[in-house]
Model the fold of this input.
Amino acid sequence: MAFVIKDRVFEYTTTTGTGTLTLAGTKSGYQQFATVGDGNTTYYTIVAENGDWESGIGTYTSSGTTLARTTVLSSSNNNNLVNFAAGTKEVFSSQPAGRAVAVDTLATSTSLGTSNLLAPSQNAVKGYVDSKVEGSPFRNRIMNGDFLINQRRGFDARTLTAPGEYNADRWFHSASQSNKMSSQVINGGSAVGSKNYLRMKTVSAITLGSSDVFSIEQSIEGFNVQDFSLGTAEATQITLSFWVRASQTGTYNVAFRNDGNNRSYVTTYTISTANAWEYKTITINGDTSGTWKNDENIGLKVYFDFGSGSTFTTASPNTWLAGNFVKSTGTNSLITTLNATLDITLVQLEKGGVATPFEYIHVADSLARCERYYQKCYANTRGYAPGPSNEMESAVPLRVLMRATPTTSLLLGIRGNVSSVSILGGNILGARHVLTSAGAGDTYALQEIAVFDAEL
Done:
């Protein structure tokens, strides 16, 4: 669905609490939110008689004439959802200050990178403008967000039989119980600008236990998010955007966590229409507390929940918490329904409060970025053994500098007159093969795939 802005949109509501608004009509001279279109998103502002207010991005649904409060941008409740009391509230569409571009009348420089070009309230947009002017090739801190790189599994549907494993490169799949959930990269187009998408599916419905977790997530290297300044007073806003399709309507969870899993931010998004692609954006304020890595270790985790137990559930979403939480109370758990599916693609995480268009990069560049964490190298070695039990060493250079010293293994080997072959633990640049000859006077050859794993 699309993001739509219309003029003179104004309605009333008597909805209380923090949930979806039921709209109750407008007054002469104004339009209703229906002009935005079913399933589309738009800016909204809610104002109550007691002075409570909230601005954000909402999703309009024609059935029931409702407006879901998808993303809160600012509010009288410390920029979190407002728990509105009884009474009539005004709801209207207006562009938030933080999403408008304006030139400061005091600007004295023609450089778009200077701090005085935009008014202070425009800092989110300024970050976007700066990145465009600088020609940044790395707006999106998520790797393989379009699921084009798939070194491990191909396009088979794989049931998760271990506590965690990878399917598409950089995407980790958690399953606290085996043979309950499958994941699959589907090649065939999503109709939203992506060739591939990732599907999670329930293959055996369960009743969630307190310590159950089912998810997909990506851990982002600290070097790649160091400018988020997490854990400091200068922590920036962070914006996540993605396309998603689910077999059930309802409220779903996204969580952000640190390396130690002791700082968490859980927030939600709404699926308005079953089995239809919907575009979601989530903006949060960066954490000013806790311990966050800015080196080759995990700097930030992004977690899409498929169903989690009470141990990992919080009643206080939309704020940073001390603890390991990935789900909020009263939200969907697809793992409890047989054959439930969730598809996702074009996932982007960026600095600032603006969801910019997805950053498409060449598939070769995407592969190289993924190979910093996992790569396969093809070795072809030949030699001559003057006698039995003679050894020969050969180097296996890596194509990309790896994040850390990798674990090594042999995925496939076609051996000539070789009695044994081993690959020695290497470093971030490469490793060594050691081959032992089968007999005196033999020539021997080795053709194989060496696997190097330095995932976070």
